[in-house]
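User: Here's a structure from my thesis project, written as structure tokens. My advisor, Dr. K., wants to see whether a designed sequence matches the one we expressed. Can you design one independently, without my sequence as a hint?
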């Protein structure tokens, strides 16, 4: 999983996966209904926040009943080999510990995929440092996960590093620490992958944000083929990493990738940008099909990432919990023209009266009798439309029960109520 999350990896390799096995996991729209198809798989979730806030603690408390284990970002190793610990401050660790709710903690060490070291020893030391530090602070750490999106050509080095790390975990008072890694689908055709997955106790197969940004964040059909291919080739325990977030991707004038903005706002950007979003209904349908026809060595789901009230690009916590439980909650957005204190002036408001996050509509058709009006908060007037219309500038989700003002109308002679037509 590369660079600070959410990560978008430009895949250079097109996978050829076994068709018959993959077909058994292909998503089916017939399964899009409320309620689980089969017993839910255990749900781990990534806590990827780099700073402690009260909103993070509140989210952990609310999510805990649906969480089997916390996978917490502990440190990051840059392309130059520099180590940046996360939540190192004693007070922050103490605050985090208060919200663990007795769930196992798996520390995640993120290693930049561009790292070109040939000696695994410094990486082994960097991986062990947070494990020792967190245990000194009183956190009962159950496992260590390595998140390293190395190029396929460097998988032999990765296997050597993991082998050395595994040996160190067996001594020095660290006995019993389970080792896991994240794995990219682009590694699947590589013979060297067998040496990599043979080392850890568990693999987390990432099926989101592994294609070109223009292809979106999550493709259920492709994800099903990857899961089937992994389950067919390897018998080792694995989990599937699923998304509950969005990202803003920007490109330079020459169409090269400029920035990927997730939970942390960025100051810069490219010449043009787009918002990508993993749709709850798509993920829920994929997950229900996966549960019904899971490979025998599939042990659970690892969600990226824990939603908080401060994370505007993640699903709401209620939507995540519903999908994690095996439901397919449905959002429903209506548009209303609400009168203001100024006669003839109305505010345009979107309201989600459904049970899940819903994607805001692509456009809003306004009454022909209201020639004056404009958009706001992600909407703008379409100057080319023959009738008054607001168009969405970028996709996004509206949580259940919430509302968003998206523009205004001036209709001095129009009868009430005004009717706004929503176009998905």
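Assistant: Designed independently from the structure alone:
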């Amino acid at each position: 999983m590369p660079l600070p999350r959410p990560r978008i990896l430009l895949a250079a390799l097109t996978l050829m996966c076994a068709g018959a096995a993959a077909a058994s996991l292909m998503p089916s729209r017939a399964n899009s209904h409320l309620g689980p198809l089969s017993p839910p798989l255990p749900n781990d979730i990534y806590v990827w926040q780099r700073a402690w806030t009260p909103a993070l603690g509140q989210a952990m408390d609310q999510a805990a009943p649906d969480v089997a284990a916390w996978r917490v970002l502990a440190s990051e190793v840059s392309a130059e080999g520099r180590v940046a610990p996360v939540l190192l401050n004693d007070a922050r660790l103490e605050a985090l510990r208060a919200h663990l709710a007795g769930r196992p903690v798996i520390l995640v060490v993120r290693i930049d995929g561009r790292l070109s070291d040939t000696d695994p020893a410094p990486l082994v030391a960097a991986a062990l440092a947070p494990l020792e530090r967190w245990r000194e602070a009183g956190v009962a750490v159950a496992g260590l996960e390595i998140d390293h999106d190395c190029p396929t050509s460097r998988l032999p080095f990765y296997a050597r590093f993991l082998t050395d790390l595994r040996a160190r975990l067996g001594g020095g008072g660290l006995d019993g620490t389970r080792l896991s890694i994240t794995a990219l689908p682009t590694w699947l055709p590589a013979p060297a992958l067998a040496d990599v997955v043979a080392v850890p106790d568990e693999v987390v197969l990432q099926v989101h944000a592994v294609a070109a940004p223009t292809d979106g964040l999550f493709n259920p059909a492709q994800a099903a083929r990857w899961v089937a291919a992994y389950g067919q080739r390897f018998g080792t325990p694995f989990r599937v990493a699923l998304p509950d977030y969005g990202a803003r991707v920007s490109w330079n004038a020459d169409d090269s990738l400029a920035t990927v903005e997730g939970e942390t706002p960025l100051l810069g950007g490219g010449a043009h940008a787009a918002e990508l979003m993993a749709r709850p209904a798509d993920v829920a349908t994929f997950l229900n099909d996966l549960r019904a026809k899971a490979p025998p060595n599939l042990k659970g789901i690892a969600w990226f990432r824990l939603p908080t009230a401060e994370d505007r690009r993640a699903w709401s916590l209620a939507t995540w919990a519903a999908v994690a439980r095996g439901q397919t909650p449905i959002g429903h957005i209506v548009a209303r023209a609400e009168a203001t204190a100024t006669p003839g002036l109305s505010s345009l408001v979107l309201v989600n009266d459904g049970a899940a996050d819903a994607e805001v509509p692509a456009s809003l058709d306004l009454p022909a009798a209201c020639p004056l009006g404009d958009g706001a908060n992600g909407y703008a007037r379409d100057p080319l439309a023959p009738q008054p219309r607001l168009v969405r500038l970028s996709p996004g989700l509206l949580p259940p029960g919430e509302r968003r003002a998206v523009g205004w109308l001036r209709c001095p002679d129009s009868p009430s109520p005004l009717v706004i037509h929503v176009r998905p």
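When you compare it with your expressed construct, this may help: Residues 146 and 181 are 5 Å apart (CA to CA).
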